[in-house]
Amino acid sequence: MAEPQLQVSGISKRFGGLQALSNVSLDANAGEIIGLIGPNGAGKTTLFSNLVGLHRPDSGSVRLQGKELVGLKPHRIAATGMVKTFQNVALFLDSSVLDNVLTGGLMRRSVEGARELARQCLARVGISAIADKLARDLSFPERARVEVARALCTEPRVLLLDEAMAALNHLEMDEFMALLRQLREEGLTLIIVEHHMRAIMSLCQRLVVLNFGQLIATGTPAEISRNPAVVEAYLGRSAAA
Ligand SMILES: Nc1ncnc2c1ncn2[C@@H]1O[C@H](COP(=O)(O)OP(=O)(O)O)[C@@H](O)[C@H]1O
Ligand SMILES: [Mg+2]
User: Fold this and answer.
1) CB distance 208 to 193 below 8 Å
2) CB 43 within 8 A of CB 20
């Protein structure tokens, strides 16, 4: 079998006295949707930040198509093909959707080239009609798509989505999930952090579960939903809250 597209091995990260990630390893194959789940504070966002170079792990390795990414700056990692969207959307509110999205393309292209690519990315996520709208006037589902379009404009192979569906209602979530399936069919690898279990269970081929910075389980959605350690991690926290 071909080696996995993304190979994460032994990632550890400490913040002062807090071991936020302990020896976390996972693989992703091209065209897979992987769900990264775990209680609040488990280290999901921190893992994403370590993968894309916003934080440097204390130890471990992140390889994308065999190339080591640890130690590279975020824009170099994006240029290699992996980006993340942000848990709290950070768009330029007084700029248009098109201008927000084209910033993703400036790394590899001229402004004109980035604008052309940005238009393609808007079409790809179904929001060509709002290209000129100001970011501050967007609805939640529009925002979620703009974030994805901006990430796509960096031309990624692996896209990390951090709670992209958080503000969406049921119907909006279904529409967004259809978009993610379409991206997967186009060959993108997706790793998604999501609290909505319905979305996770129906979208993902494989789940990875973090608890207190440790990987406690990995498997298919069916395997994970009957894994006692996973049930304990969720129930234990909610009972303590
Ligand atoms: N920059 C930081 N400095 C110190 N502690 C942090 C930092 N970022 C996250 N943490 C801590 O690391 C732990 C994991 O956080 P996070 O990755 O945001 O969890 P999750 O995304 O799973 O909810 C939490 O205890 C959080 O308070
Ligand atoms: Mg988080």
Assistant:
1) no
2) yes
pLDDT tens digits for range 159-188: 999 999 988 999 999 999 999 999 999 999
Residue in the structure block whose two tokens are 């939640």: 140
Q: How many C-beta atoms lie closer than 10 Å to residue 239's C-beta?
A: 8
CA 42 to centroid of ligand 2, rounded, Å: 8
Residue 211, CB-side half-sphere exposure with 13 Å CA sphere: 13
**pLDDT at residue 92 greater than cutoff 60:** yes
Rounded distance from Cα 195 to ligand 2 centre (Å): 10
The verdict on the CB of residue 195 being under 6 Å from ligand 1 is no
Whole-model pTM above 0.90?
yes
The predicted-structure confidence for 44-63, as pLDDT tens digits, reads as follows 999 999 999 999 999 999 99
Taking the CA of 51 as reference, the closest ligand is 1
Residue 15 CB less than 6 A away from ligand 1:
yes
pLDDT at residue number 240: 46
Amino acid identity at 190: L
CATH architecture of 6-92+154-240: 3-Layer(aba) Sandwich (3.40)
For ligand 1, say whether the CB of 41 is within 6 Å of any of its atoms: yes
- Which atom of ligand 1 lies closest to the CA of 213? 14
The finding on whether 18 has its CB within 6 A of some atom of ligand 1 is yes
